[in-house]
């Protein structure tokens, strides 16, 4: 159990366009979802935390108007990279957590974004 | 702010050898996670350590947690090539329950 999927697994887009990445918890309800970004050969950096039905909390240095996060249901969160630029190219990983009483996160397979 | 450091950053070892990866964290945290990441893939959960003195073992990997020293270790016994991957530790922030990841240790096991 505790499977998280992401779609798409990879995407290539032109500079200036917007890209939406979906994160779904397939067999559990994720009251909280997290979005991470990982540059090549680096660690995971938390971008934002989203709780179902409320606005996401962004980490310092992450532009909320550029990285739009929506957590409309207990099984779906989306990350939209608006007006993407080549420096946004990265590996984006989401995770879901069942509830506030645990900090165990279940990670999705990741989405590789390449902006030309 | 919770900070997590790992060392070494890169480890090349021969098959059959033993080695330990260290994970230090800066503030109080009593939940420590270890993950494995293969190239181009996401994270695979290895261990969850929830209390001081916790020790968990799975195959050739053994993880331990010393909350007083703010140190966790991942010990590799008789390494095999299949263990080649990047290993991350992550400590939980007690109040926000966010995970802060370590720098990662890239392990290369040579034949």
Structure characterization notes:
- The complex is a heterodimer of chains A (about 120) and B (about 110).
- Helix content of chain A is about 0%, strand content about 50%.
- With about 120 residues, chain A is an all-beta fold.
- Chain A is built from no helices and 11 strands.
- In chain A, the strands form 2 sheets. In chain A, strands 2, 4, 5, 6, 9, 10 and 11 form a 7-stranded mixed beta sheet that branches. In chain A, strands 1-3-8-7 form a 4-stranded antiparallel beta sheet, with no helix packed on it.
- In chain A, strand 4 (about 30-40) and strand 5 form a beta hairpin.
- With about 110 residues, chain B is mainly beta.
- Chain B contains no helices and 11 strands.
- In chain B, the strands form 2 sheets. In chain B, strands 2, 4, 5, 9, 10 and 11 form a 6-stranded mixed beta sheet that branches.
- In chain B, a hairpin with a 2-residue loop joins strand 6 (about 55-60) and strand 7 (about 60-65).
- The radius of gyration of chain B is 13 Å and the shape is globular.
- Chain B starts with a strand and ends with a strand.
- Classes of the chains: A mainly beta (about 120), B mainly beta (about 110).
- The interface of A and B includes residues 34, 41, 44, 107 and 109 of A.
Rounded average pLDDT of chain B:
92
Order of helices and strands of chain B: EEEEEEEEEEE
Estimate what percentage of residues of chain A fall within beta strands.
over 45%
What summary fits the major beta sheet of chain B? 6 strands, mixed
Q: How many whole angstroms does the radius of gyration of chain B measure?
A: 13 Å
What is the average of the pLDDT values of chain A? 93
What does the secondary structure layout of this molecule look like, with pairings?
The complex is a heterodimer of chains A (116) and B (111).
Chain A (H helix, E strand, L loop, with lengths): L3 E4 L2 E4 L5 E7 L6 E7 L5 E8 L5 E2 L8 E7 L2 E6 L8 E8 L8 E2 L3 E5 L1
Parallel strand pairs in A: 2-11
Antiparallel strand pairs in A: 1-3, 3-8, 4-5, 4-9, 5-6, 7-8, 9-10, 9-11
Chain B lengths: L3 E4 L2 E5 L4 E7 L6 E6 L5 E7 L5 E4 L2 E6 L4 E6 L8 E8 L6 E3 L3 E6 L1
Parallel strand pairs in B: 2-11
Antiparallel strand pairs in B: 1-3, 3-8, 4-5, 4-9, 6-7, 7-8, 9-10, 9-11
């Amino acid at each position: 159990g505790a499977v998280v999927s992401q779609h798409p697994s990879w995407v290539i887009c032109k500079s200036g366009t917007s890209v939406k990445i979906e994160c779904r918890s397939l067999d559990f309800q994720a009251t909280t979802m997290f979005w991470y970004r990982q540059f090549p050969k680096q660690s995971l950096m938390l971008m934002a935390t989203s709780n179902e039905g409320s606005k996401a909390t962004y980490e310092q240095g992450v532009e909320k108007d550029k990285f739009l996060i929506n957590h409309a249901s207990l099984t779906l969160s989306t990350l939209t990279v608006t007006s993407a630029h080549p420096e946004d190219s990265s590996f984006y990983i989401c995770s879901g957590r069942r509830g506030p009483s645990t900090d165990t996160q279940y990670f999705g397979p990741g989405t590789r974004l390449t902006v030309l | 702010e919770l900070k997590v450091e790992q060392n070494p950053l890169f480890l090349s070892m021969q098959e059959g050898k033993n080695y330990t990866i260290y994970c230090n964290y800066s503030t109080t945290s009593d939940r420590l996670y270890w993950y494995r990441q293969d190239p181009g893939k996401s994270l695979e959960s290895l261990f969850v350590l929830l209390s001081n003195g916790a020790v968990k073992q799975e195959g050739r990997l053994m993880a331990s947690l010393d909350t007083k020293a703010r140190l966790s270790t991942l010990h590799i016994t008789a390494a095999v090539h299949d263990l080649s991957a990047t290993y991350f530790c992550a400590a939980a922030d007690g109040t926000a329950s966010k995970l802060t990841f370590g720098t990662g240790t890239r392990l290369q096991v040579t034949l």
